[in-house]
Amino acid sequence: KILLLPVLLFLWGNVSGQITATYTFSSLGTSNINLPSGNVDGNIAFTTSNGTSGTATQYNGGGSDLRLYNNTTSPYNGGALILTPQNGATITAVEFTTSSTYTPTMRYSIGAANATAADPSISRASLTYSVTGLGVTSSIRIRNAHTTTLQMRMLTVKVTYTGGSPTITSPTTSLTAFSATPSTPSATQTFN
After folding, report:
1. Which residue in 102, 141, 164, 175 has a CA-CA distance of 20 to 30 Å to 134?
2. Could you give the 3-state DSSP secondary structure of residue 74?
3. Is 114 left (phi over 0), alpha (psi -120 to 50) or beta?
4. How far apart are CA 157 and CA 20, in angstroms?
């Protein structure tokens, strides 16, 4: 019965067709990292790029955020986060959060297309940006496209996708304390 529940939950998640994976950039630690890369999960990889910004894209350990700097010259090809689906996954939506006052214009392009000033904008509500209705099987490049100096300080990225290989994680069980009290035998036992 215990093993059946995770299998049923896994199958139900695949029947619904959508998988959501969230990456929190603070998991990169407390040191600064230029051009960080990694995996959102087993089906979505990420890399970063400077674009044509004069300032390197970096993870800032002190601020626990990914910093994408802009380029004020058209096509405004600033620092970027590139998400690449793997294992047959298709990205259908992307959402990311920023810290207060850092809300630049963000645009995206699909695949290896060169950045243009006409690339679609990513909508923003307060400190959350989102783009839906995607069908990305190659890659999506999310870039700072602000026309004046304003950096993006990305805290998290959430990717919704279909397909991909199942990622099965087993529950972790730990024993925090154990004690045993020996009992006094009521009879003497002898073994030959």
Report:
1. 102
2. coil
3. beta
4. 10
